[in-house]
Design a protein that fits this description.
This is Iron complex transport system substrate-binding protein. One of its GO terms (cellular component) is outer membrane-bounded periplasmic space. Belongs to the bacterial solute-binding protein 8 family. Keywords: Signal, Transport. Helix 3 links the parallel strand 4 and strand 5. It contains twelve helices and twelve strands. The chain is an alpha/beta fold. It has a five-stranded parallel sheet with strand order 5-4-3-6-7, with helices on both faces. Strands 10-9-8-11-12 form a five-stranded mixed sheet, with helices on both faces. A two-stranded antiparallel sheet has the order 1-2. The chain folds into two domains: 176 residues, 3-Layer(aba) Sandwich (Rossmann fold), CATH 3.40.50.1980; 138 residues, Nitrogenase molybdenum iron protein domain (Rossmann fold), CATH 3.40.50. The protein is 37% helix and 16% strand. It is elongated, with a radius of gyration of 21 Å. The longest helix is centred in the middle third of the chain and has 22 residues.
Length: 329
Amino acid sequence: MRQASRRAALLLIAALGLAAGCSSPSATPADGPEGADGAAGTRTVTHELGTAEVPAAPQRVVSASVTMTGPLLGLDLPVVATATSRPGGVADDNGFFVAWAPRAVDGGTVPLGGPTVDVEAVAAQQPDVIVGSAVGADAVTPEAYAQLSEIAPTIVVNHSELSWQELSGRLGTDLGREAEAAAAEQAFAGRATEVGAALGAAHEAVALTVTPDGYNVFTADSAQGKLLGELGLTLRTIDPSGASGLGDSGTRKDAIPVALENAGDFGDASLFVVNATDEQVQQYRERQPLLATLPAFAEGRVYALGPESFRLDRFAADSVLKRLQTAAG
C-alpha cells in the first residue's frame, strides 16, 4: 500500500512539473540532437539492472549519480539536472565535480543534492532519460531503479573497470552520441602521446592515493591505470597488504590497499598521486617519512594529478594531461 502511494506521489510530482514547465527556466529543453526528420524514435539499451527503451535523441537527461555527469556532459548531452557530491575538495559549492563544474553551470544544470539519489527531485525535472551508476556512494540501488524507471527510461552503468573513453563510448552508443565519443577519444589520444613522450618511460609507474592508514593503489583495470598506459608508462605490479579504506576491496579490481610500512614496494617507480595537489605532495615529505625516502621524491618524479583525477571523464582527463605537461616542462 505504501509503495502504491509513493508511486502515485511521484506521478503527481511529474505531472505538476510538466504543467509548470512552460514558465520555469529549468523546464526549458536544453539544446540537443534531433533526428533528420524530427521524428521521435527509441533504441533498446541493455544495462546493469535490465533493459530500457531510451529516446534516440534525448532532450532532457538527468544524472542520478554525480559520477556519471561528467561523461554525459562530455558528449554534449543536455543534462538538465544532476545528483551532487558534498561541496569542497573534489566538488564546487554546488556539489559539481570541479573538472566539469563550469560546463554544468554554463548549461544551467540543476543540482539535486546527493550523493544518494532523490527520486522526487528527479521526477520534478521531467527527464526523458535517466542515467545512474551501479557502484560507489552514489549508486542507484535496485529499489531506486524501480522507482526511477516509473518516471523515465533509466540506464544504470558499472563504470568501475572502464576507462573514461570506454565509458564515453558506451554512453555514446546508448544515447546517440557515437560521433562525439569518437572525436573526444581521438583528440585525447594525440595529446596523451605528446605528454607521455615528455615524461619518458624509463621508470615503472604507480598511481595511488595516500590515506592516514596506507595507500590505495590503482591497478591496470582502473581508469587511472589505463590513462597511465595511454601515456606509454608501465604499471608496477604491487601485492595488496593491510587495509586502507577500500570497503569493498575483496571484490573490486580497480584498486588494492597497501600498508604504510610497505611503501618500499613501490621501488623506484614514478608516483602519480590521485586526488592530490602539488602542496599536498610536498607535505608528504614530512607526513609520510617512508614514502618520502623513495627515489621518486629525490629525483622529482612524484606527480600530483589534482582533485579532478579521482573520477576521470573527458574534462578530468584533459586537466590531468595539462598538469603532467606542466610538470614535465
